[in-house]
Amino acid sequence: MARTSRHEKKKTFSNIGETTPVPEHPSLEEVYEETPFSEAFWTYLNYVMLNIFGWFRDLLRNARIENRKGSAENNPTGFVPLYQSYESFYTRNVYQRISDCFNRPIGSVPGGKLDVLERVTDDYNWSFQFTGNKITSINLGSYNYLGFANNSGHIAENVINTIKTGGIATASTTQEFGTLMQHQKLESLLAEFLGTEDAIAFGMGFATNALNIPSLVGKGCLILSDELNHTSLVLGSRLSGATIKVYKHNDMIHLEKLLRDAIVSGQPRTHRPWRKILMIVEGVYSMEGSLCKLPELIELKKKYKAYLYLDEAHSIGAMGSRGRGVVDYWKCDFKDVDVLMGTFTKSFAAAGGYIAGNKDLISHIRTTSHATAYATSMSPPVVEQITSVLHLLLDDNEEHEGHRRISQLAWNTRYFRQRLTKMGFIVYGHPHSPVVPALLYSPSKIAAFNREMLKRGVAVVTVGFPATPLVLGRVRFCLSASHTKEMLDEVLKHAEEVGDLLNMRKSKLNPKRPFHETEV
């Protein structure tokens, strides 16, 4: 769609949202470019050299020639070691070198900009000291998709009033005295927002998966899990006692093969039919920026009479013309997804998670889940934060705040992705995903990119092995409705500078070429 030219009025939060609707025709296309051979070679060599020098330094430490600065386990008899030997080795000799790029403390709300607390080290990252300075930076690292992470405004005032009247904790579980009227109102709004019969909220997003999957499946059941599913889904699946089979990421052919084999062969040894077959997927995969192929998943679910569990942690609020996640984005029927799960920690700038579905499902979870029986229910001010945001998102008027934020995020995502791609970076993920990973390859570049961007006033998250494959270290940009076009232009300018400094702009599928704003 054509945009206003540079001679016309300056784009503001409101006029971008008004003139740029979310695309009506989603695409399944995602392109994943291979790491260039030269980068793969140098990355492997980088790790080989780090390991060689690491083993040599460990010999010096064991011989007491070099001081051992890290803590060491005494290996007491009769106890399982806390760490695997290589895990400890990797932490000492690889992670420690770049640990200043991780666990950075901040001193402000994680809005469009944030304050990073400056730290220095005099012992090569074994310890850090605060300088007392703050580095004000454009925030591309937080999951503040809709820009609600604020400490001022009417939502913040509502939360403060709730603290004054209802306190900060329920001091009880959902099944005891932890259910307040506010919780019931929130769950009713959630069901309305998602178009389901009922919903239930929990105090922790990770536990929503880890503690509820075991209440849905158990022994004699089969879980088919995407290979890139989040750790909370993996843990919940393991705790359930069900048989788990993993399929290649977003590979519907592989998934269908596993479904057919499961129906034909049944359970191991007995060959009895599986009690349930549950497919578990994410809406937006947080490390790849990819979307699940929901229309095909629903087709397979119906064809083979399986169940579908959809984790919308990174997509609820951030995807779809109404912010209702990937179901909304793909224009699917919410009732075709058996278990709708999501978290409030990202688009809602709160805490906790939810599960939505039919009344029988939610009633079963209320009575059998460890999360309702043993975990303290959601804090009242957190409930108020989520409820206030839901009221905004339920208002479909395009002139109002909720819709403007959704449209702003969609425009920011397309603009940033297209410009980054045309700069020659290897960019992963779906064209409309607000999670934008760009490949950095080696651990040295992971650290260098992070440090150089912070020097230029941009806070980013960089990740590498073991969170990613060995040669696919990356920077993960997270877009937000709180970012202005001027902020994004500044980030892109610095990314281009650092990209040239580190020789990162090596895409063959998308070589460097001019960008025209009319393409957004």
Automatic annotation (TrEMBL):
<dbReference type="Pfam" id="PF00155">
    <property type="entry name" value="Aminotran_1_2"/>
</dbReference>
<comment type="similarity">
    <text>Belongs to the class-II pyridoxal-phosphate-dependent aminotransferase family.</text>
</comment>
<dbReference type="InterPro" id="IPR050087">
    <property type="entry name" value="AON_synthase_class-II"/>
</dbReference>
<dbReference type="InterPro" id="IPR015422">
    <property type="entry name" value="PyrdxlP-dep_Trfase_small"/>
</dbReference>
<dbReference type="InterPro" id="IPR001917">
    <property type="entry name" value="Aminotrans_II_pyridoxalP_BS"/>
</dbReference>
<comment type="pathway">
    <text>Sphingolipid metabolism.</text>
</comment>
<dbReference type="GO" id="GO:0046512">
    <property type="term" value="P:sphingosine biosynthetic process"/>
</dbReference>
<keyword id="KW-0663">Pyridoxal phosphate</keyword>
<protein>
    <recommendedName>
        <fullName>serine C-palmitoyltransferase</fullName>
        <ecNumber>2.3.1.50</ecNumber>
    </recommendedName>
</protein>
<keyword id="KW-0012">Acyltransferase</keyword>
<keyword id="KW-1133">Transmembrane helix</keyword>
<feature type="region of interest" description="Disordered">
    <location>
        <begin position="1"/>
        <end position="27"/>
    </location>
</feature>
<dbReference type="GO" id="GO:0046513">
    <property type="term" value="P:ceramide biosynthetic process"/>
</dbReference>
<comment type="pathway">
    <text>Lipid metabolism; sphingolipid metabolism.</text>
</comment>
<keyword id="KW-0812">Transmembrane</keyword>
<dbReference type="GO" id="GO:0030170">
    <property type="term" value="F:pyridoxal phosphate binding"/>
</dbReference>
<keyword id="KW-0746">Sphingolipid metabolism</keyword>
<dbReference type="InterPro" id="IPR004839">
    <property type="entry name" value="Aminotransferase_I/II_large"/>
</dbReference>
<dbReference type="InterPro" id="IPR015424">
    <property type="entry name" value="PyrdxlP-dep_Trfase"/>
</dbReference>
<dbReference type="GO" id="GO:0004758">
    <property type="term" value="F:serine C-palmitoyltransferase activity"/>
</dbReference>
<feature type="domain" description="Aminotransferase class I/classII large">
    <location>
        <begin position="138"/>
        <end position="493"/>
    </location>
</feature>
<feature type="compositionally biased region" description="Basic residues">
    <location>
        <begin position="1"/>
        <end position="12"/>
    </location>
</feature>
<dbReference type="InterPro" id="IPR015421">
    <property type="entry name" value="PyrdxlP-dep_Trfase_major"/>
</dbReference>
<keyword id="KW-0256">Endoplasmic reticulum</keyword>
<dbReference type="GO" id="GO:0017059">
    <property type="term" value="C:serine palmitoyltransferase complex"/>
</dbReference>
<keyword id="KW-0472">Membrane</keyword>
<keyword id="KW-0443">Lipid metabolism</keyword>
<keyword id="KW-0808">Transferase</keyword>
<dbReference type="GO" id="GO:0005789">
    <property type="term" value="C:endoplasmic reticulum membrane"/>
</dbReference>
